[in-house]
Amino acid sequence: MTDRTLVAGVGNIFLGDDGFGVEVVRRMAGDTFPAGVKVADFGIRGVHLAYELLEGYKTTILVDATHRGGVPGTVYVIEPDLESIPAGVVMDAHSLDPATVFGMLHALGGAAQDVLVVGCEPATIDDGIGLSEPVERAVDEAVRIVRELVAERHDESRKDKEK
User: Fold this and answer.
1) 92-136 per-position pLDDT tens digit
2) Residues 45/96, Cβ–Cβ less than 8 Å
3) Cα torsion at 82, 54, 146, 100 (round to 10°)?
4) I want to staple 72 with a disulfide (CB 3.0 to 4.6 A). Which of 4, 59, 96, 134 is the partner?
């Protein structure tokens, strides 16, 4: 496993607030990050994300709309329990349930080490392009959080190397 970090924006831009992750990484596209950090829009391409994860990332940060029962626009940082995800999950080519992606990764012989989800409580995931007002307001906060997480992880990696 390398010190590389993947920031993956996921979601369906045609389902309102489900496009949250895609919008966050779009806003980060021109940012400068340490060597080894990749920021990418995976949209609804779950199979592509699983194969990308096979390339070996120490940290994976998924950015997505996440139903947790909070107020729309609430941003969460979640550390999913990857141990509970079964291998060999059947997946359709346009599905991007994170548990399914990591199950497929495991079935392909890969493993994820440090996974975080920066999620936002959606107001609506109905047909339509564009984020609701509370979710749109949360995008900048999510960008800030992702930048902080990347900086923390790279500071830790650098300190580990210096030991």
Assistant:
1) 444 556 777 777 777 777 777 888 999 999 999 999 999 999 999
2) yes
3) -40
4) 134
Confidence band for 15, pLDDT divided at 50, 70 and 90: very high
- 129 burial (CB, 10 Å; 0-12 / 13-18 / 19+) is exposed
Distance CA 97, CA 117 (A): 12
Write down the domain spans for the chain: 5-162
Statement: the pTM of the whole predicted model exceeds 0.90: no
Identify the bridge partners of residue 37 per DSSP, sorted by sequence position.
5
